[in-house]
Amino acid sequence: MAAILLALTLVAYFGGTAAYLAYVFAQREGFSRAGAVCLAAGWLAHTGDILRRTLMEGRLPMATPGEALFIFGWTLTAIFLLLTWRSPIRILGALVAPCAALLATAVWLLPPRPGRVSPLLQGFWLHLHVVLALLGTAALTLAGLGGLLYLLQERQLKQKRFGFFYRRLPSLTQLDTLNHWCLTLGFPLLTLGIITGSLYAQLALGRFFNWDPKEVLTLIAWLIYAVLLHERLTVGWRGRRAAWLALGGLGVMAAAFVGASLWFSGYHSFGSFRTP
Amino acid sequence: MNLVLVGLNHRTAPVELREKLCGLFPDPESAYRRLKSLPEISEVLYYTTCNRVEVLAVAPEAEAAIRALTGFLASHSEVAGQDLETALYVHENEAAVRHLFRVAASLDALVVGEPQILGQVKAAYRQATEQEATGPILNRLLHKTFSVAKKVRTETGIGDHAVSVSYAAVSLGKKIFGELTGKTVLLIGAGEMAELALEHLRRQGVAQIIIANRTLSRAVRLAERFRGRAVPLEELPEALLACDILISSTGAEGYVLTKEQVRTAMRRRRQRPLFLIDIAVPRDLDPRINDLENVYLYNIDDLKEVVETNMQRRQQAAVQAEGLVAAETLKFMDWLKTLGVFPTIIALQEKARAICRQELKKTLSHLGPLTPHQQEALEILTRSVAAKLLHDPIMFLKRNHHSRRAAAEITLVRRLFNLDPEEEVALPSQAEAE
Q1: Least confident of A109-118, A218-227, A233-242, B297-306
Q2: Kind and range of the H or E element at B74?
Q3: How does strand B184-189 pair with strand B245-249?
Q4: DSSP 3-state of B260
Q5: What is the signed CA dihedral for B352, B358, B361, B366, rounded to 10 degrees?
Q6: Residue B425 included in any domain
Q7: Residues A75 and A190 in one domain
Q8: Which of A160, B24, B299, B418 could bridge across to B278 with cysteines, CB 3.0–4.6 Å?
Q9: CB distance A132 to A200 below 8 Å
Q10: Residue A274's beta-bridge partner residues?
Q11: Residues spanned by the domain of B10
């Protein structure tokens, strides 16, 4: 049972990747539909596997980088499926499906380290913090990926050179709407994630903010998104500028995860999650 | 059964001749009345498009049918026989099927890939069915034709690329805005190409059309035609705030719009995207406007370049499409060949039925009174014995329709089961001779 759910998840995600790539080349709607069905099926298996791990360990699996990426893959697929249901941008699946597949593979490639899990990693607030932050990050990741597609399409329209992707990418307006949608969904979630995190820090450590590298970098990313959202709503920033900011925010978020979790020491780094 | 196609098109006949032939039968009813009166053909479809006049028929004898159809086309008093003879082309069977597929898929068109032709063939087929001129073979062929044309369109993307300037503008607009419904178009100036583009955009469902012109009366006249709103040129800055797509086509010497003007407008528009089309020579819009964010400026040369690249793409797609057409032609010809065995199969079944009836009658007369149930059981028994016996010869016929010996095999089966008794008269004499 333990291996079956993970295997199902991986097979479905990689199958979805293949279907979406086929869609990019062959431009048949059937492929994108198959891709979405694969992702949805994989997501259900993924959910099952996370539940299994949670029941087994009595907490969300998030003590190693692999586990954290596993959960992040789950939130990314969830937000993408929500988007596909609301206003599909099919070609985005060709970026999201491989991401989800690789993120889910992480739990298998990066095995857990031995040791007892720190008592800091338990409790309702902490779980809420992690899930909200990762859901927000997933939506903002989609904004970043959408930004990539926007820049690609905008470049072709501005330079008047139409390549392989011109026909395959949706209109600029659609891609800009995606940016807006992801931002209005992801920003509040990330904000709530930060708030619950600092409340938990106050509860557990007596301080709201600890100048931990991950906290600092996330705050920078949050500021970028705050500026983007504010300018969108007030003076109507959109298009290329919004796409670049979404990509910039994504870069800082990635740095916050990779850098702060693995290289720097701090209480957000995975090294400190376990006591030998 | 033979398929025969006789016709002429833009490559073989000058426009005068095509015009005359198009006007030959103004209404389908009279055309089909003539065609159905021809004894040489059993099914017929007649279609004219702007570039072609063609008649497709099913006939037992190809030669006679070609003569009859040529006669039909030459029946116009103003069409000289000689001109017609050099302009006509004739296709039989496989070539006729391929030709029809190519016409419907728009591979034989003046502008390869234009979508109107399929619609014209569909309309012609509808008329033919209304006049009851088609039968099982043409019905099947035409339905196949429509699916081949659709397949070519979706699988090769032959019609995806705009090949006219005004249509190129529409497709660019769609890549910027998604849908054009609800958008506002502003036309500065006038001119044939600008009006054509406007017409295209209107068909895409744009919500509002604003027309600005130096002479207001001209603007008002155009506005009436397109059901838009006319404004004097002085109100251009305000109109620029309202529109999403701007077409500029004035005879002005300098720029009608500068980068600064558009920059200011974009700020006031809260950066709503703006698509500018400059089809004037000399140019109306400062080319540096394209550097502004969320503004997309295309001049006439840009659009022409788009059209040219798209033309090349269509040529590539056409090569792919030819392969598809060839494969589908073979498939249809296979089906057509199976038709040859059906008369034999039907004759076999009829003979079996006749024997059953006769033998049953004989047997029932000796058996005396039976209950209806018993009688029915006897009938079923004879029928199923006959059906089981015939099953193998029928499968033999159906399976062998591809082979080169198909005709010989059909003859063999017919002789084996004595389906043509009058020919059989010759046989005993042969046996006697031996």
Answers
A1: A109-118
A2: none
A3: parallel
A4: helix
A5: -110
A6: yes
A7: no
A8: B299
A9: no
A10: A117
A11: 2-159
Which range of residues forms the domain containing residue A8? 1-112
pLDDT band (50, 70, 90) for residue B403: low
Most confident of A106-110, B70-74, B318-322: B318-322
β-strand pairing of A116-117 with A274-275: antiparallel
DSSP H helices in B233-299: 236-242, 259-268
Q: Which residue has the tokens 């005068």?
A: B16
DSSP track, A172-201: HHHHHHHHHHHHHHHHHHHHHHHHHHHHHH
Query: Cβ contacts (< 8 Å) between A90 and chain B: which residues?
Result: none
Count: domains in chain A: 2
pLDDT category at B314 given cuts 50, 70, 90 is confident
Torsion over CA: B385, B387, B390, B395 (sign): negative
Pick the range with the lowest mean pLDDT from B57-66, B71-80, B91-100: B71-80
Residues A31 and A96 in one domain: yes
CA atoms within 13 A on the CB side of B123: 10
Picking from B113, B140, B159, the residue at the C-terminal end of a domain is: B159
Closest chain A residue to B175 measured between Cα atoms?
A: A171
Cβ contact B233:B212 at 8 Å: yes
Domain check: are B145 and B48 in the same one?
A: yes
Name every chain A residue with its beta carbon within 8 A of the beta carbon of B270.
235-236
pLDDT, mean of residues B218-226:
90
| Sequence-distant (≥ 6) Cβ neighbours of residue B172 within 8 angstroms | A157, B275, B296, B298, B306
Asked if the C-beta of A118 comes within 8 angstroms of chain B's C-beta atoms, the answer is no
Residue of A nearest to B161 (CA): A167
The answer on A91 and A35 residing in a single domain is yes
Neighbouring C-beta atoms of residue B320, cutoff 10 Å: 14
Residue linked to tokens 């891609």: A175
β-bridge pairing B208-213 and B229-232: parallel
A81 in the same domain as A134: no
DSSP state of B366: H
Mean pLDDT of chain B: 86
Count of CB pairs separated by less than 8 Å, A with B = 51
State whether B189 and B299 are in the same domain: yes
Same domain, B104 and B192: no
Picking from B94, B126, B159, the residue at the C-terminal end of a domain is B159
Beta bridge partners of B184: B208
Q: Could B271 and A158 be called an inter-chain contact, meaning their C-beta atoms sit closer than 8 Å?
A: no
**Burial level of B187, CB count in 10 A (0-12/13-18/19+)?**
buried
Amino acid at B404: R
How confident is the model over B85-100, as pLDDT tens digits?
888 899 998 999 999 9
- Say if A125 is an interface residue toward chain B (CB within 8 Å): no
**Cα B198 from Cα B219, distance rounded (Å):** 14
Q: B240-277 pLDDT, tens per residue?
A: 999 999 999 888 888 999 999 999 999 999 899 999 99
Q: Tell me the nearest-neighbour CA distance from B423 into chain A, angstroms.
A: 58
DSSP character for A262?
I
User: Measured between alpha carbons, how far is residue B186 from residues B21, B189, B219, B293, B372 in Å?
Assistant: 43, 10, 11, 20, 85
Q: Could you tell me if B173 and B114 lie in one domain?
A: no
Q: What is the ipTM of this complex?
A: 0.85
pLDDT at B409: 81
Q: Is residue B229 part of a domain?
A: no
The residues, any chain, with a CB within 8 Å of residue A266's CB and separated by 6 or more, are: A210, A212, A213, A214, A215, A260, A272
Q: Residue range B102-123: average pLDDT?
A: 86
- pLDDT tens-digit profile of B276-285? 999 888 889 9
Q: Which two tokens stand for residue B429?
A: 């004499």
CB contact under 8 A, A172 and B175: yes
Q: Which has the higher per-residue pLDDT, B321 or A122?
A: B321
